[in-house]
């Protein structure tokens, strides 16, 4: 069995989606790219989460050809592959329709930095990407790249994060990106929690975004001081 460790990681991260209430039924997917072979491991299409296993993960090359696996890969595979082809520094992608973050996507609204936890993890506004059609299949991936590659990001964020880690696609849902599938999953969980709190606050009143100088302080503290080194 090819890429045993990556298969297991991708499987575990897929199983975290329903556990964290980020998906329903068979929606959503996690993938991971092996930097040595450039093969991508991804969830199979339309299979219930309770029926998944590491062995049922599908391995494809960067052109979408199935390298190993008896099941069809996720219908979102090409969207992932467009990103992987163009960003060698991305090794994990998560896609969900988690309700609170997707509510902002539906309205075409970015999420300002209202919360210190938002400043900690992301250090910048969560951006909104354009509506992308499902056909041609590459359009979703291209819409993601337009946002991932934007260079007008705060300097304190670019120091630690060379690519945009979260993109809300208009009328669609949420994509998160990391160096690994585990990192991408962490961002998917955090953005839904942040979006939920923002949604509740906006229903009660008009919160004020943090000023840039405070965002930089929280982000720097989190990325340079927080945790065990």
UniProtKB/TrEMBL annotation:
EC number: 5.1.3.4
Keyword Signal: no
InterPro entries on file: Aldolase_class_II_sugar_metab (IPR050197), Aldolase_II/adducin_N (IPR001303), Aldolase_II/adducin_N_sf (IPR036409)
Catalytic activity as recorded in UniProt: L-ribulose 5-phosphate = D-xylulose 5-phosphate
Keywords annotated in UniProt: Carbohydrate metabolism, Isomerase, Metal-binding, Zinc
EC class name: isomerase
Listed Pfam families: Aldolase_II
Cofactors (names): Zn(2+)
GO molecular function: aldehyde-lyase activity; L-ribulose-phosphate 4-epimerase activity; metal ion binding
Cellular component, GO annotation: cytosol
GO biological process, one term: pentose catabolic process
Domain Class II aldolase/adducin N-terminal: 8-199
Lineage top rank: taxon: Bacteria
Keyword Metal-binding annotated: yes
Similarity comment: Belongs to the aldolase class II family. AraD/FucA subfamily.
Name of the molecule in the record: L-ribulose-5-phosphate 4-epimerase
Source organism (scientific name): Dictyoglomus turgidum (strain DSM 6724 / Z-1310)
Taxonomic lineage of the native organism: Bacteria, Pseudomonadati, Dictyoglomota, Dictyoglomia, Dictyoglomales
């Amino acid at each position: 069995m090819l890429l045993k460790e990556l298969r297991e990681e991708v499987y575990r991260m897929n199983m975290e989606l329903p556990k964290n209430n980020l998906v329903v039924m068979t929606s959503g997917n996690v993938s991971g790219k092996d930097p040595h072979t450039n093969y991508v491991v991804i969830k199979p299409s339309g299979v219930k989460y309770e029926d998944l296993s590491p062995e049922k993960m599908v391995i494809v090359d960067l052109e979408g050809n199935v390298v190993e696996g008896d099941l069809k890969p996720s219908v979102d595979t090409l969207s992932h592959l467009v990103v992987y082809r163009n960003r060698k520094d991305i090794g994990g992608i998560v896609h969900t329709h988690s309700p609170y973050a997707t509510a902002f996507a539906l309205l075409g609204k970015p999420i300002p930095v209202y919360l210190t936890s938002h400043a900690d993890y992301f250090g910048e506004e969560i951006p909104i990407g354009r509506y992308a059609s499902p056909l041609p299949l590459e359009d979703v991936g291209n819409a993601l790249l337009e946002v991932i590659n934007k260079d007008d990001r705060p300097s304190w964020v670019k120091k630690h994060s060379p690519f945009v880690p979260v993109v809300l696609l208009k009328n669609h849902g949420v994509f998160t990106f990391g160096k690994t599938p585990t990192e991408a999953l962490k961002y998917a969980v955090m953005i839904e929690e942040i979006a939920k709190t923002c949604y509740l606050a906006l229903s009660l009143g008009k919160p004020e975004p943090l000023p840039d100088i405070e965002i930089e302080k929280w982000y720097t503290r989190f990325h340079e001081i927080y945790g065990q080194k």
